[in-house]
């Protein structure tokens, strides 16, 4: 079943949970799509899990387009959402529409995601007016890491909770089809989820959100530099990969790989002609 923004709306209406994961390449996107994931995000988390940066700030629009193209070829049914990286929508509304358009035209995204509340409402409205579906993103928005003074849980005071609820309502009014809630208390995420009609997708925001998203390297146990409290590791692929690569190295070193069955043959007549 092909997922569209209408699928997301319907799932919330039917009180059915929405599943999303990040992906950045063809093979992974294809596997997730075969599992019937509702949506795939080409997140600017690629700065950390693909490029090895300390944060997401160095990611460029061209990098997101490159990874979106690969994911698009692998995912036939998931809704493909591409992240708008840092400074790709802050400078002007025109630039925001242009960059959102590039993610759709060049990358093949179905929708774009951008971080922030009141200060990016004009951008959200303009992108939606250009017929590009927008997913909002509130809470511990990683592009604000320096402004927050680190990756810190948000929405812990009355003032910030009120602001989060106001921002979520503004995002809905601006025409966004969904909003990611990241790194906020579960109760606060529940209040936001109950006060808007568009789906909320949580990451570190408890179980009351309309859906969940995780960075795939986190949930598959491939990125152990730092495992946040909200991550559940459904597999330990890091260990599986290390064991497999260790066996490969040993077999190459001791000559037991490749075997006859991995080797192409040539018939005797052809071989004689070579000598
Ligand atoms: O960049 C990303 O992967 C994200 C998700 C964690 C929501 O924004």
TrEMBL record:
Entry keyword Cytoplasm: yes
Binding-site residues for 3-methyl-2-oxobutanoate, renumbered to this chain: 44-45, 83, 113
Catalytic activity from the UniProt record: (6R)-5,10-methylene-5,6,7,8-tetrahydrofolate + 3-methyl-2-oxobutanoate + H2O = 2-dehydropantoate + (6S)-5,6,7,8-tetrahydrofolate
Keyword Ribonucleoprotein listed: no
UniProt GO molecular function: 3-methyl-2-oxobutanoate hydroxymethyltransferase activity; magnesium ion binding; methyltransferase activity
Pathway: Cofactor biosynthesis; (R)-pantothenate biosynthesis; (R)-pantoate from 3-methyl-2-oxobutanoate: step 1/2
Residues the entry annotates as binding Mg(2+): 44, 83, 115
Main localization category: cytoplasm
Keywords on record: Cytoplasm, Magnesium, Metal-binding, Methyltransferase, Pantothenate biosynthesis, Transferase
Cofactor: how and how many bound: Binds 1 Mg(2+) ion per subunit.
EC top class, as a word: transferase
Cofactor(s) this protein requires: Mg(2+)
EC number: 2.1.2.11
Cellular compartments annotated: Cytoplasm
Location of the active site: 182
GO biological process, one term: methylation
InterPro entries, alphabetized: Pantoate_hydroxy_MeTrfase, Pyrv/PenolPyrv_kinase-like_dom, Pyrv_kinase-like_dom_sf
Gene3D superfamilies in UniProt: Phosphoenolpyruvate-binding domains
Record's GO cellular component terms: cytoplasm
Family named by the database record: Belongs to the PanB family.
Protein function: Catalyzes the reversible reaction in which hydroxymethyl group from 5,10-methylenetetrahydrofolate is transferred onto alpha-ketoisovalerate to form ketopantoate.
The protein's assembly and partners: Homodecamer; pentamer of dimers.
Name of this chain's protein: 3-methyl-2-oxobutanoate hydroxymethyltransferase
Annotated source species: Clostridium neonatale
């Amino acid at each position: 079943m092909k997922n569209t923004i209408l699928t997301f709306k319907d799932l919330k209406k039917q009180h059915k949970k929405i599943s999303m994961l990040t992906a950045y390449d063809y093979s992974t996107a294809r596997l997730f799509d075969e599992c019937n994931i509702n949506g795939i995000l080409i997140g600017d988390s690629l700065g950390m899990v693909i490029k090895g940066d300390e944060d997401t700030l160095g990611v460029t629009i061209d990098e997101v387009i490159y990874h979106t193209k690969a994911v698009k070829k692998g995912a036939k049914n998931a809704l493909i959402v591409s992240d708008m990286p840092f400074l790709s929508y802050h400078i002007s509304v025109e630039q925001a529409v242009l960059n959102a358009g590039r993610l759709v035209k060049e990358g093949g995204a179905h929708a774009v995601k951008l971080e922030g509340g009141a200060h990016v409402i004009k951008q959200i409205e303009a992108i939606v007016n250009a017929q590009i579906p927008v997913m909002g993103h509130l809470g511990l928005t990683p592009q604000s890491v320096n402004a927050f003074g680190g990756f810190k849980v948000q929405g812990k005071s009355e003032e910030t909770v009120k602001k989060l609820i106001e921002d979520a309502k503004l995002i809905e009014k601006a025409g966004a089809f969904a909003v990611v809630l990241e790194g906020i208390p579960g109760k606060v995420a529940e209040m936001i989820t109950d006060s808007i009609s568009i789906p909320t997708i949580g990451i570190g925001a408890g179980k009351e959100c309309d859906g969940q998203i995780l960075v795939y390297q986190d949930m598959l146990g491939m990125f152990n530099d730092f495992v946040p409290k909200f991550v559940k590791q459904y597999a330990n692929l890091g260990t599986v990969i290390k064991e497999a690569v260790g066996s490969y190295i040993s077999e190459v070193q001791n000559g037991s790989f490749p075997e006859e069955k991995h080797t192409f043959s040539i018939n005797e007549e052809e071989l004689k002609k070579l000598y």
